[in-house]
Every structure is written in C-alpha cells, then in structure tokens.
Design a protein that fits this description.
The chain is mostly helical. The protein is about 45% helix and about 5% strand.
C-alpha cells in the first residue's frame, strides 16, 4: 500500500501511484479479525495510529511482508519491512525510480 505523507511532492506521488498496478497484484479487504489484530498492535506499539495498525494487521493476515511508505512508524514492526519511497536504493530494488 502506498501511503501519501503530508507535504510530499505531488508529482513524485503521482508517478509512484501510477506504478502501483505493476508492483501490486491484489487488493485486500479488512474485517473483524484484522480490526482485532490492529487493537493488539496498538497496545504494543504506541507510535502506530489506528490506520497504520489496521493496515499492518491486514498485511500480516494476507502474508504481505513489506510496504511502500515514508511513514517511519512502521519501522517498529519487525514483521513488516518498510520500503521508503524517498530512498532511491529501496525503490531500485523494486525496479522503480524516485
């Protein structure tokens, strides 16, 4: 999931958003199991907000182990690798450009 951070360069975000269909092959729903898991994440990771916790719980339930986001709060989650869209080295691993 691409999460846009406030103040990010809109043109760069648009380029990255256009790459989503090439790097993301599925869209996953969230339900009660993910919400319950999100509450547990919130209890153990005080820096996470509700949206981030729900996203992380949904990713975990569907076997997703990485997310493309500039949000450093995800760094607290060992089970979810954060790929920073501002880091050209990270993007190169995905075959993307900044």
């Amino acid at each position: 999931m691409l999460l846009r951070r406030p103040g990010a360069d809109r043109a760069a975000v648009l380029r990255q958003a256009r790459d989503i269909p090439r790097i993301c092959t599925r869209v996953h729903d969230s339900g009660w199991p993910e919400l319950e898991a999100a509450v547990e994440l919130l209890a153990h990771h005080p820096r996470l907000d509700v949206r981030d916790a729900l996203f992380a719980a949904t990713a975990a339930r569907h076997g997703i182990d990485a997310t493309l986001t500039a949000d450093g709060d995800f760094d607290a989650l060992a089970e979810l690798e954060r790929i920073d869209p501002a880091d050209p080295e990270c993007l190169a691993r995905l075959g993307l450009s900044a």
